Amino acid sequence: MFERFMEKTPAIDENEEYFDEAYDEYSDYEEEAPVSSIRAVAPQHEEVSRIATCRPQDFTDIEVFANEFRKDLPVILNLADTADNARQRIADFALGVCYGRGGNLRQISDDVLLMVPYSVELADHGPQKENRLGL
């Protein structure tokens, strides 16, 4: 059976060169293309298109604003509804989150804090006044 198969198979000349016709269309390209080294590129920050507003009532609500700030979003913390014994703890935690992420924390009023990520520039205009939370 193998012999009959070999009889029907065309003979292959070992000296003849075979190539794929699809390969021929790439023959116009140079053998070696210029190569540049890979380098890190600084990320381009888009304009801020969203600002998160959070109203924590006690210290257990800190995860909500911390997760928003970790997304590099500015966060407005409204402490008007926060229990008095939790206000300073929340403000201290917000300050730590800002510091850890390279951002800033500003007190806007007695009840409102602004958490600003490193990618957002905060310009001060006008006099600064003393605040209750010591920020």
List keywords for this structure.
alpha+beta, 28% helix, 135 residues, four-stranded mixed sheet
Helix content: 25-40%
Overall geometry: elongated
Taking pLDDT < 50 over at least 5 consecutive residues as the criterion, the unreliable ranges are none
- Mean pLDDT comes to 78
Radius of gyration: 33 Å
Assess the beta-strand content as a share of residues: 5-15%
Category from helices, strands and their pairing? alpha+beta
Q: Give helix and strand order, one letter per element, not per position.
A: HHEHEHEE
Strand tally, please?
Answer: 4
**Main β sheet profile:** 4 strands, mixed
Which strand order spans the largest sheet, edge to edge or round the barrel?
Answer: 1-2-4-3
Cα distance spanning the termini:
93 Å
Query: What is the tally of helical segments?
Result: 4
